[in-house]
Amino acid sequence: MLDKLAAMSPKHLLQLRVLDGGDLDLSVTDPLERTTRYIYDEIFVGRTYVHPKIRVPDRATIVDVGANIGLFAIWAAREYRPQTILAYEASPTTHDCLVDNIARYVDPELTMAACINLAVSREANQELLLHQPPWVAGLSTILDGTTLPWIEELRGKGELNTHRVRSTTISREIVDRGVDRIDLLKIDVEGHFMEVLQGIDPKDMAKVRNIVLEAEYAETLGHSRDSISELLSANGFEVEAQDAAQIMIYAWRV
């Protein structure tokens, strides 16, 4: 199977039916649809990122941390018609697909969408190691094998790519990109979520209006829905946590 995957182009067109009856021909590193179909259903069908208390204003600024191949950004562009989307994806191979998909499915006359190949973390200008199976776009993590045993298992099978990636922080990006507010901050970083939050200075946290966070591996990392909720509550957010395939955190300002 690995030989078959290696012989395929890293960009494979996968046709998905969207809610309005049109088609998405996505460029993905997922020739066997291991995660792309799941992520599509999660975002477009299950509407995982929608919460009744989260209200995104007209001409919003949306920051997508862990943008993957761009499914959330494409959905958010259609749902909210924002002024700006900043989409951060650490994996260089997945980032190539993100750029391609955003160029084809986000209208530049309505939304300025920037695709940034950096890992969002607690410190900027650090070199981090990103682990990713070669056969899927939707699974890459900064966590290591001491935390996630499957990383070493895949490494032993020759089914793991390791990328050296550069880091940034939300606060650094706010300064560098002249952002005065973040109307929706989406975080889906395969367990690296606390580092993303720790990279937001208190003065910048006040500029964030809404957060949707997927807290993968929370218990393994020593966190819980309550501890994450308490952190956001202490920063002025109203919070609701839901248990799904992973802990989903919805946070908003009144």
Describe, in plain words, how this protein is organized in 3D.
29% of the residues lie in helices and 26% in strands. The protein has 254 residues and is of the alpha/beta class. It has one domain: Vaccinia Virus protein VP39 (Rossmann fold, 3-Layer(aba) Sandwich). The longest helix is centred in the middle third of the chain and has 14 residues, at 92-105.
List unreliable stretches of 5+ residues: 1-11, 17-21
> Quick one: biggest sheet?
7 strands, mixed
What is the helix content? Answer: 25-40%
Strand residue content: 25-35%
Shape category: globular
Distance between the termini: 52 Å
Query: Tell me, what is the CATH class?
Result: Alpha Beta
Mean pLDDT value:
90
Rg calc: 17 Å
Give the SSE string: HEEHEHEHEEEHEHEHHEHEE
Across the major sheet, the strand order is 5-4-3-9-10-12-11
| Strands, count | 12
Can you tell me the number of structural domains? 1
Question: Helix/strand/pairing class, anyone?
Answer: alpha/beta
Oligomer: single chain
Relevant terms:
9 helices; Rossmann fold; three-stranded mixed sheet; alpha/beta; seven-stranded mixed sheet; 26% strand; 254 residues
Topology:
Elements: H1 2-7, E1 12-17, E2 23-28, H2 36-45, E3 61-65, H3 71-80, E4 84-88, H4 92-105, E5 112-116, E6 119-120, E7 127-132, H5 149-156, E8 161-168, H6 170-176, E9 184-187, H7 193-198, H8 202-205, E10 210-215, H9 225-233, E11 238-243, E12 247-252
Parallel strand pairs: 3-4, 3-9, 4-5, 6-8, 9-10
Antiparallel strand pairs: 1-2, 7-8, 10-12, 11-12
